[in-house]
């Protein structure tokens, strides 16, 4: 069996063991040259002790026994109970060779093998207890043990190597430059009618996308690198506070970029401490509340829509909103009048105010004075968000959304005042085009211009006013709105024009511009010009969308939408086969695009199109639902196709070819009928019409079941 087929735990064990073993071997050889070397002895002992401990978890008892015998001998040397001799050095080197042999067997079969190492263990034990009296036996037995094994043969058994992070960052930066060059070439290819040049650009685009994907994966680490220390942290904190806590972890194999892992390590640790210190009650208090004495601390992580969702929560006492208001007044953070007028939403978010703490004094449990404002700030620095869901007496859950990586991201390119800006797709909700007549519906609410979008008030921010552009070319006949969301609120950004979504390489701003909260970085666009990346949260603050105005607008929206609020979903409507109304939840729609049929390529029985950083399989809904219909992709006439890129899971994206996009609506998704045919989840009445809601995975299964199999076995 290949090493790649071994489960993750064994693979990680092998990688670490080979590293430790190579260091042990070097240290043992150095011991013989320099007699007793205290640091080398201590390092060798620790490494062998670690290897022995790891064996017990998997378990590998034979390997554990050899490591244990070697560890005991090293302990005697370290404690000066024995003097280093050539025989002892030989026995230790033979121990290394035998361990390496077993590791090789594990890498091949996941088993230790049936070879007997009892003689070696006996020798190690005799050396430990008898010193130099075992010289003869040692020399004789080593000849027998090495008749079949060469230690050199397995020095390269592990397919992993250590790479300096700085070197890896340089490689990623170079790949970013290749992506930029690719974007420029694609832009040039549209200006020329040379088919060979266009084909070469397409080929380069595919290779660049694959290179980008593979290189970015070298930076990915599982979140378990952080979570693996939480069981010990939980035990120590629970013991120190006299509480009983059980930790549950789900999604520990979820991967993020190394820079993200480093950035969230401290915030997540603080939240875990917070749940144990402030959330979970003492056993007597839990019993009085009708709860089991064992408190529950849970951590969850999952990929969703290009982000990672993390939840950290407990089943403890929850947040006492009145106590939060009272404490904030004691600390001078809010006035009595402000506290009295607060909503529950505002009261919960008091814990994010700088200087807020419910602890009467700083202890080693309360985080050494590090407040939740620092947690929120650190998460926002990596374009993440944090929300709190708390029920008094039931518990508190912290919900965090963070990007997978910060290096290369999809972004919408817009213009204002003749310059182009990038808005991260993670903040985008939808695009709205207002004709002159519709602009009359813009009204003022608490000195903020707002637009009623499907019954909800959306505050507007004019980018040209924030940037103080004097030469804005906004067409008064058409107003382009980019609806963006940050934290718990959204607003509409008014721009001159909306271009397209591109994969951009994020470049940090120089020291002189670091203080500008309006921008999160810069990028080089396809034509070689520099575009600034808008920090949506910073833009909301700079533009005057204050916390009070956010809450007033939120309250107004809540008042207007009390009916069936929890049942409402945002649905993307489109015309399907024979112009039948169909829809899908907007949450799984990644992008809307128009493509030329000439850009579609056929491989076997599957059609593909190259779309930015991926090769996208296409599914024609007419072929799925109307088998006798004339299909677009079979037609040789050049035409523009409308596609919806959907991602039913984190590993698969496909393009659905539809007749035309109709609208985006927010309505209660009430089931009005069962599925009428395969590929349909159910029917709903939307805007007075019976609308078929697609079951995306079923549609893919009908069109090409191999696509789903690739995500399962790939």
Automatic annotation (TrEMBL):
Q: Which CDD domains match?
A: CheA_reg, HATPase_CheA-like, HPT
Q: Identify the enzyme class.
A: transferase
Q: Which InterPro entries match?
A: Bact_Chemotaxis_CheA, CheA-like_dim, CheA-like_homodim_sf, CheW-like_dom_sf, CheW-lke_dom, HATPase_C_sf, HATPase_dom, His_kinase_dom
Keywords from UniProt, A to Z, are: Kinase, Phosphoprotein, Transferase, Two-component regulatory system
Q: Which residues carry this modification: Phosphohistidine?
A: 49
Reactions accelerated catalytically: ATP + protein L-histidine = ADP + protein N-phospho-L-histidine
- One GO BP: chemotaxis
The Histidine kinase domain is annotated at: 202-406
Instruction: Look up the EC number in the record and give it.
Output: 2.7.13.3
Q: Does the keyword Transferase apply?
A: yes
Q: Which Pfam families match?
A: CheW (PF01584), H-kinase_dim (PF02895), HATPase_c (PF02518), Hpt (PF01627)
Q: Where is the CheW-like domain?
A: 408-545, 567-705
Which residue range or ranges hold the HPt domain?
Answer: 2-106
Q: Name one GO cellular component term.
A: cytoplasm
One Gene Ontology MF term: phosphorelay sensor kinase activity
Name used for this protein in its record: histidine kinase
């Amino acid at each position: 069996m290949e090493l790649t087929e071994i489960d993750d735990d064994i693979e990680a064990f092998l990688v670490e063991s080979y590293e430790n073993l190579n260091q042990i071997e070097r240290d043992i050889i150095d011991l013989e040259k320099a007699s007793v070397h205290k640091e080398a002895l201590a390092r060798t002992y620790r490494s062998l002790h670690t290897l022995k401990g790891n064996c017990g978890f998997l378990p590998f008892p034979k390997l554990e026994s050899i490591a244990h015998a070697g560890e005991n001998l090293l302990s005697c040397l370290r404690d000066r109970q024995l003097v280093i001799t050539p025989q002892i050095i030989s026995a230790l080197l033979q121990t290394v060779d035998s361990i390496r042999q077993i590791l090789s067997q594990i890498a091949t079969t996941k088993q230790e093998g049936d070879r007997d190492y009892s003689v070696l263990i006996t020798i190690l034990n005799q050396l430990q207890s008898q010193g130099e009296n075992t010289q003869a036996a040692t020399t004789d037995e080593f000849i027998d043990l090495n008749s079949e094994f060469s230690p050199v043969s397995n020095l390269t058994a592990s397919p992993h190597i250590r790479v300096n992070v700085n070197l890896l960052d340089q490689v990623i930066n170079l790949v970013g430059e290749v992506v930029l060059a690719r974007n420029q070439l694609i832009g040039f290819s549209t200006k020329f009618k040379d088919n060979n040049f266009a084909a070469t650009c397409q080929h380069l685009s595919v290779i660049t996308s694959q290179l980008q994907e593979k290189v970015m994966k070298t930076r990915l680490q599982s979140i378990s690198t952080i979570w693996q220390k939480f069981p010990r942290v939980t035990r120590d904190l629970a013991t120190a506070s006299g509480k009983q806590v059980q930790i549950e972890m789900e999604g520990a194999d979820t991967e993020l970029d190394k820079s993200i892992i480093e950035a969230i390590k401290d915030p997540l640790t603080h939240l875990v401490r917070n749940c144990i210190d402030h959330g979970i009650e003492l056993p007597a208090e839990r019993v009085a509340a009708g709860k089991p004495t064992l408190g529950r601390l849970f951590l969850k992580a999952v990929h969703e829509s290009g982000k990672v969702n993390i939840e950290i929560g407990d089943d403890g006492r929850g947040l006492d909103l009145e106590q939060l208001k009272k404490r904030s007044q004691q600390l001078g953070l809010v006035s009595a009048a402000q506290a009295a007028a607060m909503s529950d939403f505002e009261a919960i978010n008091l814990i994010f105010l700088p200087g807020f703490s419910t602890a009467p004094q700083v202890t080693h449990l309360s985080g050494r004075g590090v407040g939740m404002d620092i947690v929120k700030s650190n998460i926002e620095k990596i374009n993440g968000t944090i929300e709190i869901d708390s029920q008094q007496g039931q518990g508190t859950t912290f919900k965090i959304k963070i990007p997978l990586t910060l290096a290369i991201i999809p972004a919408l390119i817009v213009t204002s005042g003749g310059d182009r800006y990038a808005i991260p797709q993670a903040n985008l909700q939808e695009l709205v085009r207002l004709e002159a007549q519709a602009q009359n519906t813009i009204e003022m609410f608490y000195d903020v211009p707002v637009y009623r979008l499907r019954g909800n008030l959306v505050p507007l921010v004019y980018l040209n006013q924030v940037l103080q552009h004097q030469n804005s070319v906004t067409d008064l006949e058409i107003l382009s709105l980019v609806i963006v969301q940050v934290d718990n609120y959204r607003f509409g950004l008014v721009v001159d024009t909306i271009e397209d979504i591109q994969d951009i390489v994020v470049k940090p701003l120089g020291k002189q511009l670091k203080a500008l909260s309006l921008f999160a970085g810069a990028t080089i666009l396809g034509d070689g010009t520099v575009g600034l990346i808008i920090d949506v949260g910073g833009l909301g603050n700079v533009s005057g969308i204050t916390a009070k105005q956010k809450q007033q607008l939120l309250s107004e929206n809540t008042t207007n939408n009390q009916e069936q609020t929890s049942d409402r979903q945002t649905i993307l409507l489109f015309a399907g086969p024979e112009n039948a109304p169909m829809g899908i939840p907007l949450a799984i729609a990644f992008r809307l695009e128009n493509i030329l049929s000439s850009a579609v390529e056929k491989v076997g029985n599957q059609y593909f199109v190259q779309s930015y950083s991926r090769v996208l399989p296409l599914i024609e809904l007419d072929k799925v639902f109307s088998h006798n219909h004339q299909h677009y992709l079979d037609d040789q006439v050049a035409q523009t196709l409308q596609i919806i890129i959907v991602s039913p899971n984190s590993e698969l994206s496909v393009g659905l070819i539809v007749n035309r996009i109709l609208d985006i609506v927010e309505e209660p998704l009430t089931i009005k009928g069962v599925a009428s045919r395969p590929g349909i989840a159910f029917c709903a009445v939307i805007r007075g019409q019976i609308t078929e809601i697609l079951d995306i995975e079923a549609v893919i299964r009908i069109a090409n079941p191999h696509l789903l199999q690739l995500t399962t076995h790939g």
